[in-house]
Amino acid sequence: MVLSGIWRKQDGSKEPQPPAITVKHEKEIPAADIQDLCASVGWSRRDPELIARALANSLSVVSAWEGELLVGFARATGDKVFNATVWDVAVRPSHQRRGIGRLLMVALLEDLDQYDIPLITLYADPGRDGFYRRFGFNTDPYGVRGMFREKDGV
Amino acid sequence: MVLSGIWRKQDGSKEPQPPAITVKHEKEIPAADIQDLCASVGWSRRDPELIARALANSLSVVSAWEGELLVGFARATGDKVFNATVWDVAVRPSHQRRGIGRLLMVALLEDLDQYDIPLITLYADPGRDGFYRRFGFNTDPYGVRGMFREKDGV
Fold first, then answer.
1. Kind of pairing, strands B119-124 and B83-91?
2. Distance of residue B39 Cα from the nearest chain A Cα, in angstroms
3. How far apart are CA B147 and CA A122, in angstroms?
4. pLDDT tens-digit profile of B100-134?
């Protein structure tokens, strides 16, 4: 999948365009690239071996690349049957507001829809629910509440 | 694990006690038993083959038995590393208010804690968040909101 056109000026002028964005569906992403992306959005550093194991155990992993640079990432866990949960949607700040988050969500939901999963869930950071509503997600339907249990020190 | 004592009267009298509850950690549970339990709590009927596949793809499955009768169930999905999500906590109405839900949650969290997972999430039905708070779960920390996307017709 190649992102195109969104940098094209409406007047059709031939402004130099940045390299195209490619979306991949492979689980094998170098841990160093993931760490770099996580650092760019202020997430805590994670152990490379743990990253590899978590990706392997994910139901779907999608990533966005500008050439060799990992510029976005998203993944989902689940049972392949009844439910899936979207985690770790991240776009490098230097590449935000270009539609890359949307590309990642579309690619991830395409992956999940092939399993015919009836329920997909996620946890939206404050102010981000509007983004996810565009993909059919709703907050707290039927009064259901998301709850979290964090291990000490995390 | 055997539930004992909760029916013992405080005066020590020898009232006949109901059969003990046994908690199992096996993923192989006959689909007919699951269907029967789900029907008892008003959940929709699920295909036996899909049930077996979902259990096999779960991170942990715990069940409570009174002899041959499945009286409670809970499971979790996840990546075995960074997160897990608790699903389908159910206790047969005839066996509720006996501490079986607590037994199931303790057993499930024991399973998950062996992976050293930093974040465990769940979606609580209306009015059920008090039950989960006892196990360290909180609603919407940091303003994070649970969101759902349901397939048409589900």
1. parallel
2. 17
3. 5
4. 999 999 999 999 999 989 999 999 999 999 999 99
